[in-house]
Design brief:
- The protein has four helices and six strands; from the N terminus they run αααββαββββ.
- By secondary structure, the protein is of the alpha+beta class.
- It has one domain (7-129).
- It has a six-stranded antiparallel sheet, with helices on both faces.
- β1 (56-60) and β2 (63-67) form a beta hairpin.
């Protein structure tokens, strides 16, 4: 019988420690990371926001993430949707409404930690905005 640690166990421990380090580095609590669905796509989006200096990043078919920017507010979202000819119509609390012709796009906004905002599109996906 072989004694020792298998490569698989070492890799698993390394990946677990890396995951915890990333959560600590970006100040994300473990309970938050799973509330938005797939944590990998969310972490990729946060990485792009932080390291590529992007203002808003798609993280799923119907979700966008943005770093909180107090003075600009919805400007990055408005600019992103303006590329697809959507115009801001109204905001009712955390719900934002955009219009394009006779179509309506409803987006729910919610905080994801203190540093990020997640936008969830209803009745549309990012592909159908075009």
């Amino acid at each position: 019988m072989k004694r020792g640690v298998s490569k698989r166990k070492v890799i698993l421990v390394f990946l677990s420690l890396l995951f915890l380090f990333i959560l600590f580095y970006y100040n994300i609590k473990l309970t938050y990371i799973f509330q938005e669905g797939n944590p990998i796509s969310l972490l990729k989006g946060i990485y792009k926001l932080e390291h590529y200096k992007l203002e808003i990043v798609p993280v799923a078919k119907n979700k966008l993430i943005q770093k909180v920017q107090a003075p600009e507010g919805l400007t990055p979202l408005n600019d992103y949707l303006k590329k697809y000819n959507w115009k801001f119509a109204d905001q009712l609390g955390s719900v934002i409404i955009y219009k394009r012709g006779n179509q309506q796009l409803v987006i729910k906004m919610r905080m994801f930690t203190q540093k990020y905002v997640v936008y969830e599109l209803y009745q549309h996906t990012l592909d159908s905005l075009k």
